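The aim of this short unit is practical: by the end, you should be able to scan a pair of folded records and say something sensible about each. We start with the first protein, listed as its amino acid sequence and then its structure tokens.
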Amino acid sequence: MTRTLLWFRDDLRTADHEALLTACQRAQNPGDVVALYVLDEVSPGVRPLGGAVKWWLHHALESLRADLGDLGIPLLLRAGDPAEILPALAKELGADKVQWSRRYGGPERAVDAGIKAALPDHGIEVESFNASLLHEPWTVQTNTGGPYKVYTPFWKQISVRDPGAPLERPAPLGPLADAEAALPALNQGSGNLQDWELLPTRPDWAGGLRENWTPTEAGGHQRLREFLEDQVQDYDDARDVPAGDGTSRVSPYLRFGQLSPRQVWHAAHQQTDEAVHKFLSEIGWREFCWHLLFHFPQLPHTNLRAQFDAYPWKSRHEAPEDFRAWTRGETGFPWVDAGQRQLWETGHMHNRVRMASASLLIKNLGIDWREGEAWFWDTLVDADAASNPANWQWVAGCGMDAAPYFRIFNPERQRERFDPKGAYINAWIPELNSPEYADPIVDLKASREEALEHYSQISGK
């Protein structure tokens, strides 16, 4: 019997999915391909999912189960240790092969390597594929054969590379009922998504998420199509204006693999507008973040520039009132407060506002970048293991190719420049012009000077 167990992770789609396509190509009968998703909250070092990501995952798995069902492929759900689940389930199914799409974080790579080494002992072949990047980290090197630490030459190299055309969705293998009938009775059945309790209940935080997102593969393609047809021509200017939000908003679909970067790249290259190149450079920045995480797996929790270990940042426990005001959008700085309220309501914050919000927390309130990164991890629907910490380290100045330490965003000037009529801040702060609105919690000038003094001390200048 030829049966493939296909392990889905952050690749929750059916098109441009090499592991899925090749599994279907080797199938001979209904039931020869069985899909699996494992909710892994036990493997060492694997970071627990944030709340907004859990919400998206629930709906993405519902959608994936339906899409795979149309192809005649059942999706099984399991929670626990994949190192135990995969060998046992493969044996239970009588599978002779396991396939998956590669991951690039340190703990995840360790998990995958262990499973890949163990399965052949059970007589099971293993094959992995690229599904998440245009170019995998080890394929992009400097002239000396090392990893890139600066974005511009990295982008210069990959911008002229051809990642290849996206793969088609496989043809259906037959009715789903025939596939299910061909499988042996499973100890845990197909698994119940509701049992994972991924959706928030009290408060119903997800109300705004539902209004703003369609967390499906089809929803991702619709969003990309709308952006490229209606918005990309104004992207170079509109991307900095949060009131209209001229950004693509495809990042959560990339984070969950409902869109592949190759699909985005290919679709964007069908456009002739010059502004599309700026958009593609943002896809390049995403690639750079994953490149950094692969080569520097300490990225999510350690300053990549060691001199910043001496910076006297405070934890959220040492500055609880400031941190709480920042998370609740009550700092007294409308640009930052609007962003935090948008984040809580929609799971999204405009990138221009993200930078100013992070800068205020780190450089004016003096709170450790890791505290802000953890908050974004819990509240952003697009929070991933590479871009989230890389962007926080960029703002803090402690990462690779980071903003210079003396670049401190002034939220008032940002507001004047990118929201001069107040459309954005008024949309999110109804009490803005009333006595109820918070007073500024920090003196921008004094805190800026203090931050520069700290930076000067750790840099020896």
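Turning to the second protein, read its sequence before its tokens, just as you did above.
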Amino acid sequence: MVHQRVRLGILTIAHEARRVEFGYLRNQLELTAGNLSQHLAVLETAGLVAVEKGYAGRRGRTWITLTAAGNTALAEEIGRLKQLIARVDTTEAGPSGGDPQR
């Protein structure tokens, strides 16, 4: 679930910001409000983010916070990505013409 690019972006920004406003996430990830809402619903159902609705002055706001489970899932996905990147780095540094079927 986390490996999907948009969801990985949501978790990464939420980790960085601790508490992030919906509009900021939408702008940073260049998504429509509806698309972001769908991704957040999936992550919230999985327990990876908490969604809090409230007001800033008279304007409605939605804030997203990474949960402990979300933090763990993000760390695990980053670990998997690092392993894949290491394979590319090793392949580029090694001799060419290796067996692509390995």
